[in-house]
Specification:
It contains twelve helices and 18 strands. By secondary structure, it is of the alpha+beta class. Strand 1 and strand 2 form a beta hairpin.
């Protein structure tokens, strides 16, 4: 009898209740609307870039589900390839769901990628959700808990690192010693307004759920600094500083570059376009063959990055520089490099359009 009771308790501790993203809107309308505009709401069914890459990797396995469809109850089957994503399954169409993120109890660090450990729920009871909010309101849908580990770990399950099947590092957004606190501070800043529709405790601010990132103009401006100095010997010294707490490039599709132009009477007389070190990106090889998607890559062909809070100095000698010339230094970010889009059939998507992060202009005196 005792053994039967223990077994019964074990199987009752599960995701007995799932709260969909839409159900959160009833009490958290503003946060829901913020989330719907964020890239956490994007996944296999509503983000064509992600879907095309996932399908290019395999039309059977969906390995990406671990981070891009983590609320799926058939996660193991999706990764193994015995089942495919279904547009009729709310846990799958919810992408990186509100419920999933607020269920994270802690994260187990591992070599290839970290593993998210969710809190166990007892069948028949309303679920418990974690957050950083102190003295949260109670409601009939879920209990709210302030877990000290939650704030440290909530981002580290997916945004830490990822190695492919050949043990090659293909994604790294955080160092091993970093917690989620720095991520939250930058990507989820406080914005005006309470976190609930009925603001019973008269809260004046809440954490933004836009998850600001590379797609946001203001975030790009904050990401880097440029400094331009000109020596008497016609040396143009440019300092590029990465202001972020993670490297410039954290995923394989990205490309960033520093463009320096010298103009005279509106015409370009010099540029740094041929300087390979002004481009930041990863190019991959599978054996001796170049590959665009690093799923099966074995090594890097070209690897250039700039670490967190690090600076890089460029020294350009421009012999023909004259008084009145205009020097422009700009830093651009590309969401998905052209060769990647060509490989997955999205050449006309516009995702390879350079997005300006920072620009400075100086006139030679």
């Amino acid at each position: 009898m005792r053994i039967f009771l223990l077994v019964s308790i074990f199987f009752s501790l599960s995701w007995s209740v799932y709260l969909s993203n839409k159900s959160c809107k009833e009490c958290h309308k503003d946060i829901y609307n913020e989330y719907q505009r964020s890239y956490h709401s994007k996944g296999y069914f509503n983000d064509i870039l992600h879907r095309q890459i996932a399908d290019k990797i395999s039309n059977k396995k969906y390995d990406c589900a671990v981070c891009h469809m983590p609320a799926a109850q058939n996660l193991k089957a999706l990764v193994k390839g015995t089942e495919r994503p279904s547009s009729s399954n709310i846990r799958q169409t919810d992408a990186i769901s509100c419920f999933l993120c607020h269920e994270i109890a802690y994260v187990k660090k591992a070599h290839k990628y970290n593993h998210i450990i969710l809190t166990k729920q007892t069948e028949g009871y309303k679920p418990s959700l974690y957050g950083e909010l102190k003295n949260p309101d109670e409601n009939d849908k879920h209990s709210s808990l302030n877990n000290p580990l939650y704030k440290d770990n909530v981002c580290t399950g997916c945004h830490a690192h990822k190695r492919n099947k050949n043990d090659l590092l293909i994604f790294k957004a955080m160092s091993d010693k970093q917690t989620s606190k720095e991520c939250i501070k930058c990507h989820m800043p406080y914005i005006p307004g309470g976190n609930e529709n009925m603001n019973k405790r008269a809260r004046t601010k809440h954490r933004s759920h836009f998850f600001y990132g590379v797609h946001n103009d203001e975030m790009r401006k904050k990401s880097v600094d440029l400094e331009l100095n000109l020596s008497k010997k016609k040396h143009l010294i440019i300092t590029l500083k990465n202001k972020m707490t993670h490297p410039l490039i954290i995923q394989s599709a990205r490309e960033m570059y520093l463009r320096v132009l010298v103009k005279r009477d509106g015409k370009i007389i010099w540029s740094n376009k041929k300087d390979k070190n002004s481009y930041f990106k990863y190019d991959y090889l599978k054996g001796k063959k170049e590959v665009v998607i690093p799923y099966e890559a074995t090594s890097y062909k070209w690897f250039n990055n700039l670490g967190a809070k690090k600076s890089k100095v460029y020294d350009y000698f421009i012999e023909d520089l004259k008084k009145g010339d205009t020097i422009t230094a700009s830093f651009y970010i590309i969401i998905a490099k052209k060769e990647c889009l060509d490989d997955i059939g999205l050449s006309s998507s516009g995702l390879d359009k350079p997005l300006l992060a920072k620009k400075i202009i100086k006139i030679v005196k």
